[in-house]
Amino acid sequence: MRVAFLLYDQLTQLDMTGPAQVLSRMPGAQVEYVAKTMDPVMSDCRLALVPTLTLADSGQFDLLCVPGGYGCSAAMNDAEILDWLRVQAPGLQWLTSVCTGSLILGAAGLLKGRKAACHWAWGQYLPMFGADWVEERTVFDGNIITAGGVTSGIDFAFRVVAHLHGPDAAATIRLALEYDPESHAGGTPASAQPEILAPLKTMIAERLSHRDAEMRAAAVRLRGENP
Question: How far apart are CA 159 and CA 176, in angstroms?
């Protein structure tokens, strides 16, 4: 199975590296990291990521994952990226995303009438692209699998392995990676302490305000290009 992760400027590296570590150990998987050029791509924590293929030379994949990050709004308005996703989509066995990567899929017109997950602070934008936001950690809708925010990508990857190769395959990789997380309340708005949630929501709203125009422009462009 050819597996691809899309790289773009200012993605959140854990959206990609978490599931990539899991899926790279999936039986028969060949993982590639695809970007517009072969130049290193800077993530939002200043960890540079090196592509293995360009969009133009990538060929058809079986499973494609689009990670999220603060750079998603620019990617949502990047015609080269969106066209590549539209070309890939019909030949994919599985189209997937993590965090705000679902918004990029939405901007490409690939989530119309679909249920999808997203980061809790960004999910309200999904209906602008014809998708139904579901506040769950992993959402299956046909051959589209979407994950919630950031760390959800790891659990999403284990669900993909279990779905394709059975629970024993997923359990073997889980043990090899010693993935046995402690349970901590506070990782979602519903379980967070109010005094922690309120300032974080304010900070995120400030960051979103700088990207709101790009998000809405992507929605307008989608309606114009794909009525």
Answer: 16
pTM of the model: 0.94
In Å, what is the CA distance from 89 to each residue of 51, 62, 84, 181, 215?
A: 20, 9, 9, 33, 22
- Give, as one character, the DSSP assignment of residue 106: H
Helix (H, G, I), strand (E, B) or coil at 66: strand
Rounded alpha-carbon distances, angstroms, from residue 100 to 82, 202, 206: 15, 18, 17
Task: Among 3.40.50.1820, 3.20.20.10, 3.40.50.300, 3.40.50.880, name the CATH number for the domain at 2-225.
Answer: 3.40.50.880
pLDDT in tens, 1-40: 999 999 999 999 999 999 999 999 999 999 999 999 999 9
Contact predicate 208/121, CB 8 Å:
yes
- Give me 41's structure tokens: 């791509």
What's the token pair of residue 210?
A: 């700088």
Contact 71, 10 (CB under 8 A): yes
Catalytic residue among 65, 72, 99, 118: 99
Active site residue 118: no
Distances (CA, A) of 156 to 48, 117, 119, 186, 194: 24, 11, 13, 20, 28
